[in-house]
């Protein structure tokens, strides 16, 4: 059985701020902020609140996915009394996948939503984008196109390398599908640039190939 990686603890470097792991990139061991176990629990409720079930938690979210940070803090503290705004800030600033963004006292998830959300990112200007999948799914995708599964948007990668990383989470034999983003865009298909990933609705098969 494959062993799950131990969650990294949160620390703070006097020069570079929050980081995850044993030492900062500069070599400083930093000061302790939060254990890996608590960081993992905090990460799960943040993800749930901003991507999946804000209403169930009583969190008000606007149509573009933004919530008030102090409201998020109150909701999290109702579940985990040990959590502070500093812990939440540390989680956002050290997220290695760039899943969240902050604007003043508001915060939102960039991608990964299962709820209906209208993200207001600019359209991507790339000519090609990529999607990593398994051998079994590749044939099906070529036949019916790309469609969101358990998420509001299809998630696309900007490079082949990133697509491989995503696919390897689910399969040992990744297949990379390329998308003619330029042609899709010219024909009215909107693809948003969310930073780490690109987001789209259903993509018909005529725009994709292995």
From TrEMBL:
<dbReference type="InterPro" id="IPR042080">
    <property type="entry name" value="RNA_2'-PTrans_N"/>
</dbReference>
<keyword id="KW-0808">Transferase</keyword>
<comment type="function">
    <text>Removes the 2'-phosphate from RNA via an intermediate in which the phosphate is ADP-ribosylated by NAD followed by a presumed transesterification to release the RNA and generate ADP-ribose 1''-2''-cyclic phosphate (APPR&gt;P). May function as an ADP-ribosylase.</text>
</comment>
<dbReference type="InterPro" id="IPR022928">
    <property type="entry name" value="RNA_2'-PTrans_KptA"/>
</dbReference>
<dbReference type="GO" id="GO:0000215">
    <property type="term" value="F:tRNA 2'-phosphotransferase activity"/>
</dbReference>
<dbReference type="GO" id="GO:0003950">
    <property type="term" value="F:NAD+ poly-ADP-ribosyltransferase activity"/>
</dbReference>
<protein>
    <recommendedName>
        <fullName>Probable RNA 2'-phosphotransferase</fullName>
        <ecNumber>2.7.1.-</ecNumber>
    </recommendedName>
</protein>
<dbReference type="GO" id="GO:0006388">
    <property type="term" value="P:tRNA splicing, via endonucleolytic cleavage and ligation"/>
</dbReference>
<dbReference type="InterPro" id="IPR002745">
    <property type="entry name" value="Ptrans_KptA/Tpt1"/>
</dbReference>
<dbReference type="Pfam" id="PF01885">
    <property type="entry name" value="PTS_2-RNA"/>
</dbReference>
<keyword id="KW-0520">NAD</keyword>
<comment type="similarity">
    <text>Belongs to the KptA/TPT1 family.</text>
</comment>
<dbReference type="InterPro" id="IPR042081">
    <property type="entry name" value="RNA_2'-PTrans_C"/>
</dbReference>
């Amino acid at each position: 059985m494959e062993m799950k990686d131990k969650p990294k603890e949160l620390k703070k470097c006097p020069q570079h701020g929050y980081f995850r792991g044993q030492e900062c990139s500069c070599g400083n061991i930093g000061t302790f902020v939060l254990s890996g176990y608590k960081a993992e629990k905090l990460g799960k409720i943040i993800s749930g609140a901003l991507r999946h079930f804000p209403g169930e938690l009583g969190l008000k979210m606007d149509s573009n996915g933004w919530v008030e940070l102090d409201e998020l803090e109150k909701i999290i503290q109702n579940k985990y009394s040990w959590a502070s705004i500093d812990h939440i800030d540390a989680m956002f600033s050290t997220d290695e996948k760039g899943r969240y963004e902050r604007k003043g006292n508001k915060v939102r998830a960039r991608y990964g939503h299962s709820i209906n959300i209208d993200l207001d990112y600019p359209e991507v200007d790339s000519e090609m984008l990529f999607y990593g999948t398994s051998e079994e799914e590749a044939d099906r995708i070529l036949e019916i196109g790309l469609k969101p599964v358990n998420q509001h948007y299809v998630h696309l990668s900007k490079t082949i390398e990133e697509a491989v990383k995503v696919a390897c989470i689910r399969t040992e034999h990744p297949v990379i599908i390329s998308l003619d983003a330029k042609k899709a865009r010219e024909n009215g298909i909107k693809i948003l640039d969310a930073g780490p990933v690109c987001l789209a609705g259903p993509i018909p098969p005529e725009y994709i190939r292995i």
